[in-house]
Design goal:
By secondary structure, the chain is an alpha+beta fold. Helices cover 28% and strands 27% of the residues. Helix 8 packs parallel to helix 9. About 8% of the residues have low confidence.
């Protein structure tokens, strides 16, 4: 998608800047993983016992291990390579990955992550993907979490990273059991939307049901996923995390720009939280206002 600069009411296209090596792209992305993909960086060029090297190894905020591979050429078979790394990764003992998390992340961040060993993610980043790549990802989607993302570098040091929307030609099938779009989500384990919902009183459950319906109505790309600490909602990245209490709902948000009632509380920067604003409410009359805050966070990632 071209980008334009507005000069005296005229649109002037920004010129794209080519990147010479995959390593140059990797060096741009890795220091900014949390901002770009909501992923904590763990290792670069991680050697496997099968002889390969994972370009970037990370863990997302829900605890899912993340394998990131970069592609410069259309002929690079990066998806099959990543699948091989995924097979190796899931064959390892969980303790080795937990040790990486403890080694690389701040102690309070590491403690907040419960590793989701059942649902690792594969992210492939390239300037473009051919039909073979897209068809391969489409076939894999019902079973594996494979995400294709395209990047562009423009003049004036402007960078864009966009998820490639894969429209399946198959009308049957469903997303992985850990993810569901615009519908209930169960992560295949003990954590589900309903298990979180049951923590609240009857009034709190009804309030959550209204809030949930409004969040899912924000757009078809909204994904809901329940993990141990919260129910998360994401577009390209998480934009809301809901914690259901007995008599209230607490929502963690990515960014608040307009909060005239001052309901959102900033989490101290020392905590290093990505969703670093908290709003707690229990009265249905506050629902419209809280949704206005959630929409701001959603617009930050949509």
């Amino acid at each position: 998608m071209p980008l334009y600069r507005i000069v005296e009411s005229k649109f002037l296209p920004l010129k794209q800047q080519p990147i010479q090596r995959e390593k140059d792209l990797q060096r741009l992305v890795e220091p900014n993983l949390l901002e770009l993909l909501d992923v904590h960086f763990l290792e670069t060029e991680y050697s496997t016992t099968s002889g390969g090297r994972i370009d970037t190894l990370g863990v997302d905020r829900t605890g899912a291990p993340v394998i990131i591979e970069y592609k410069r050429n259309q002929n690079d078979n990066v998806i099959n390579q990543a699948l091989s790394y995924r097979k190796w990764l899931t064959a390892q003992k969980p303790e080795f990955f937990e040790m990486l998390i403890s080694k690389r992340l701040l102690a309070d961040v590491a403690r907040s992550i419960e590793v989701d060993w059942k649902h690792p993610r594969i992210i492939c980043i390239a300037e473009t993907f051919n039909r073979f790549d897209i068809d391969t990802a489409d076939v894999l989607l019902p079973v594996f979490r494979v995400e294709l993302m395209t990047y562009r570098i423009y003049e004036d040091d402007i960078f864009s990273l966009e998820p490639l929307q894969i429209v399946s030609e198959r009308q049957t099938g469903s997303p992985p059991d850990s993810i569901q779009t615009n519908g209930p989500a169960i992560d295949g384990g003990q954590h589900s939307v309903e298990s979180h919902r049951s923590r609240g009183s009857t009034e709190t459950q009804a309030l959550f049901d209204d809030l949930r319906a409004r969040i899912l109505a924000l757009g078809p790309q909204v994904v809901e996923r329940a993990v141990q600490p919260y129910i998360g909602y994401r577009a390209s990245k998480n934009f809301a995390e809901i914690h259901i209490q007995r008599s209230a709902i607490r929502v963690a948000l990515r960014g608040i720009y307009n909060d005239p009632q001052g309901k959102a509380v900033k989490v101290p920067d020392s905590h290093k939280w990505t969703l670093n604003w908290l709003v707690t409410f229990s009265n249905p009359t506050d629902l419209d206002y809280v949704m206005s805050l959630i929409e701001q966070s959603y617009n930050d990632v949509a």
